[in-house]
Records
---
Amino acid sequence: MELAVGAALPQWTLESVSGERMKLLAAILRDPNPIHWDPAEVARRGLGFRAINQGPTNLGYVTNMLMSFAGPASLRRLNARFTSNVFDGDRVVAGGVITAIREQDGEQLIDCDVWLDGGDGTRAVAGTATVALDAAAQARLGHRVSAR
Amino acid sequence: MDEAAAAAPAQRAPVTIEQMQELVGHAFPGGTFTIEHWENTLFTEVMQSDPLPDGLAHPAYLFHAPLAGLGLGYGDIFTLCHAESAEAIRAGEYQWEVIRPLRVGETYRMSGEITGVERKTGRRAGTMDLVSFRIDMHEAASGLHAASVVNTWIFLRSV
């Protein structure tokens, strides 16, 4: 990919969101909200007919996309808001576009708009992020980024 | 309490914006959280990520660890913010700042407070209070600042 303002980040795709993993996260977080494991409760609340993925997991997918691009320790900042629900079985795609490339404190920083789109293309997460390209990412991308 | 009283729906006084604004500056009890290997393994699997190298924990811990480290459950925050019900709460905005990547086995010390309350009225949702709280994470052993999060949760009001 070209490292330039306006360039799209490589997408991260999950073919099917897992309801079983929602149950596991509910237990880890001690989150009693049944919309994450009881489709009948989701329907009762008029929210749909399948279990709803936890928000942190949706953010996790966005961070997976950023780590795949810039490295596993690359995340410096993430601001995000949830704009719609993701459901059990949905296909989701995390993506982004570079909005600035800069240098700060010796690090090459990439600012991006980021998002997660749900099953029907509805945007589920929208936000901005900053990552620092690690050495492996710089090598993989073919050159060291110059601030501009 | 007699049966009639027990069966009657609770009469809840409307939550005023003044009540909510009194929460600004409310400091949470501090605490610590250790990212355990077993939990990070499961957490990373939930996030559909491959295990991270070099002892790194998945960054989505920035949602889980700060609240857990403060010793706060969701219910505690709901009560503090006068939630009308568990169904009347929505996730708002999340801001994560990472100074030092989170690591498995590291113990983090948390401190935090409510930083803002704003009342808004939406066309569909009606009256709502946006409550923001900031939590700082420091490595317990070194004292170094690792991360800060600002979460905004939305409390829907029937007033």
---
Amino acid sequence: MPSTPSDSLVKVSNLSFAYDRRPVLSGINMEIPRGKVVAIMGASGCGKTTTLRLIGGQIKPTSGEVRVDGKVVHRLSSDGLYQLRRRMGMLFQFGALFTDMSVYDNVAFQMREHTDFPEELINDLVLMKLHAVGLRGAHELMPSELSGGMARRVALARAIALDPMLMMYDEPFAGLDPISMSIVGELIRKLNDALGASSIIVTHDVQESLKIVDYVYFVSAGKVVAEGTPEEIKASRAEYVHQFVWGEADGPVPFHYPATQPYGEEIMTQAAEVSNRG
Amino acid sequence: MANKLIAVLTDLGHRVTGALWRLGFASRFLLMILVYSGTSLRRFHLTIREIYFSGVMSLIIILVSGLFVGMVLGLQGYDTLERYGSSSALGVLVALSLVRELGPVVAALLFASRAGSAITAEIGLMKATEQLSAMEMMAVNPIARVVAPRFWAGVLSMPLLAALFSAMGIFGGYLVGVRLIGVDAGSFWSQMQASVDFREDIVNGVIKSFVFGIIISWIAVFEGYDAEPTAEGVSGATTRTVVTSSLAVLAADFILTAFMFRGA
């Protein structure tokens, strides 16, 4: 990525991770420059969300490191990690709103936990954040009364409650209708620029995210297979990128899950077994 | 044959080591709850809120069960005592059975199925819907904010619920013994007052219910926190909470009783 290290808020170097012995990421390198919106794209199960969890320090890498604002995340003490997380915001795939709290209390949660702000100030801030996502009128509702798109926007308001320097979005467009999708997309871009934050979007929604991001990393089978600006990605002739961007059913990512035997052979073996039993 | 035997032994070994690992995790988890209890005690309103959900909301089942258990004790006790011509001691029998045993134990079993299961399901679902992860990413420790208040609420509620169970049971025994059957009210109450010892009976009963409170709350929060984040995982964890904590309460009751009342 064309940037000097001092421009980068997040620097991922040679990062590998395995669940038990199953490798998920192998040797990933990425940089997220300050003030930019970067997308990590790839098919389901390719290790995108794992990358996000490693950046947030929820899991530790097998090898390599993630630096956020100059600090190596997995070497921080638990206090140090919590200090760093106060400056991060994360939007979970389905919002992860606290279901026993109203919309208002969800957004006020971090302010009450981490600051000594008087309740009047919290009230102003909460309404301001909710206004920014267009849901000031919904502050009394409970999460169960919200639609999927509204819940995602409330979660967004909650994530930006303490004006984070880094925003992370885990599949922000999943399961949304086209209108909610573009609302959320525009909000991500606008809030990033207004807060002067940097954002990482993990997504498989190509068309929506290419509209709003500055740079894209493509991840496949735990490796970065392509990267570039949205224009470069759209113009790319790399097989994998082409298949992904244009949504083709077959290509380097096969349609069939690998089977042990060829189709014809397996059918015949099974037929023979059935007739033997009969 | 030998292969089968080895397979059975291996399986048994796996189960035993698995159970020991889990016990180790649960013990470390309890230690973490104690370490991070500062928040739930400093911001006591968090614990009060949970006392409402697990303690106050269990009141109806505890009070109604206490009343019926006391009424049955009144009937059964009178029937037995009458054979020896000592039906006036009905008050003592009802009170001692309740304060020493039935109050703490039955209230604990009811608490495990009413509140323990709810705590496990709630924490398990919070985990499954990523609410606990979200909290961690907001730099708020879920053990301090979610688990510890629920644990302490259970520990504090249990002795109060057991006391109410016993009180209601004694009232039930009075209704049946005195009001229905016609045992003398004076001897019912006075013999009870004379025979029930504060230190020996009531304090021991309170200690029991306090221990049961720790056991149930510990199992309930651990099972919830450790649940697989799926529908089956949460339902399995809820069942395990009820089964494990009921058995643990009964086993602990035997041990405590052996220490408290041997030779008394």
---
Amino acid sequence: MTSLIDRILEGREILQRRPWPRAMVGAHLWRFVANELAQGHLSLLGLWGEPSMVHMAIMDEDTAEIAIVSLDCPDGSYASIGRLHPPALRLERTVHDLFGLSAQGLPDTRPWLDHDNWGVRFPLGDRIDALSKSAPYRFLPVEGEGLNQIAVGPVHAGIIEPGHFRFTASGETVVRLEQRLGYTHKGIEGLMSGADLERAVQLAGRVSGDSTVAYAFAFSRAAEAALELVVPDRAVFLRALLAELERLANHLGDIGAICNDASFTLIHAHCSVLRESVLRAALNAFGHRLMRDVITPGGVTRDLNDDGKAIIRATLDNIRLRFPVLVELYDNTASLQDRTVDTGVLKPALARQYAAGGYVGRASGRSFDARRALAYPPYDSLRFEVPVLKEGDVNARVWIRVREIEQSLSLIDQILDRLPEGPSSTPVGRWREPSEGMAIVEGFRGDVLVWLRLLDGLIERCHLRDPSWFQWPLLEAAIEGNIVADFPLCNKSFNCSYSGHDL
Amino acid sequence: MRKLLFETLFRRPFTERAPSSDDAAVTELATAVGHAARRRLGRSLSIREVDAGSCNGCELEIHALNNGYYDVERFGLRFVASPRHADVLMVTGPVTKNMREALARTYHAVPNPKWVVAIGDCARDGGCFAGSYAVVGGVSEVVPVDLHIHGCPPTPTAMLKGLLALLEQADTAAVAP
């Protein structure tokens, strides 16, 4: 039986297959894909623009087949996917803000990343002057008796990133949350165009600070796919080691922070000590606490020596000793469970519709984990489980993290035991022909997607899609019906990236 | 929980000795702090953090200042929720055009006397994001900066050194006639 992706691509010229096929489609097939997305036969992995073209990455969840379909938009418009498939809404608003391409039939045409501060419109497309008179952003209208609005941000009370939340509450209960993001938009995709690989991977590693390894990993794999470059085995294993250390540090931090937002500071204090121990091990082993700028196209810039190995092992032993006590405490503290159980429930149907990755998806029944589903090396040769729960509440998102910490500990053990000898990088060499590549890497928050096209030794276009794109909208759904005071708790359990989303 | 708390009674604390304050920071600050201002503050500073467009890397390390190893509160340094309660505005990131106004408003909401500490390489001059259509540049393009702390991101120790220098300046002047 031919798969859905095969049927879509049938008879089309495959432009590139590095590693997934990309084909030009016509308006008719574009609409067909939109329908298949809306009916849940396909998942949307990303939608991004170029000056007169839109691309869409799609996946068949059952077979993990992936393809990119591209549509020419010579007249600057294309049929909206978001009209039928809401996960595309913010992506299409962004494509308009950056490239000036309009989605026909898009139900929400308000700007998203463009807050009318840049001095230009469509900065990555055909630039035009900014509007002479800026209009205020229109939040969705709310009607009803006794409703009150609470506006929060962009500057929040904690040490966190900026964004605006508009709550509509009835008494204490949140009736609607509307997010407004884009405050940290730095124009990274604009800076990418024309950059050489060295600068580009540096930028990729600064898209979202907590996922610097995941982004450098995804970017490097995409570049290597484009160049058909084979990375030495040792580098492949070291990259996974870096990725698992990053996951470990972030999950430890998150579990502590979630408990802290439920005013249970004891676990927070202990988790931050464990997190710090991972960062210190990373500093000793790889020369940087967040392991920034270690992964580059061709391999890794820092090899691991015996001292580094020993430090990582000692850190792991300590976590194995101390972490279970904290998990037990979490599980046995009724006052804490009272806050996390049944709070901020994300329904499995929504997680599936939005193809939500990471702990957000896996706590709501969506088992996708790029390490397993796409089995990129070295994960194809390592043993690990992908924990999945169905409850979808804050508690479930805590437990997914707990289980993933256990899996990461085991993965790091396996990597250290089996670390191959040999070089830790290979020279990238010179190339001239245009070539494309795409990669998906499982960061701690979910799947990071990078697509790029190289030309004359430089980046022509690079798109980086954070997992948060498909998690932020779900937070709006999960908070509905909860009390305002539980928002920090729900928000922290999602821990979406602002910078990764805003780019 | 009792067991965990009991254990901590007998274990050596994680907290490490304070690093010596950063010489470069002391020099930069020498000109920045007014005598009258220092006298009023004494040995305590409240810090309000503002992310003006960072990648969140600096925030992670600022968070680390509160963990058991660095325990920034033992020096009288405290992170507060409102700029109205703050003496110090700690700013990260290249200032994005979308955050320029929010940063300026937050600065004006901090009562005098106040200091601005710019954290990280991006906060100095926009770092690797300088030149983008969406980026203003360093923090000093929008609000006056008293102290820069380098790094991408700066380590918690580097931040602690800078903040201790700030505290010393405030302190020495407070006892001076």
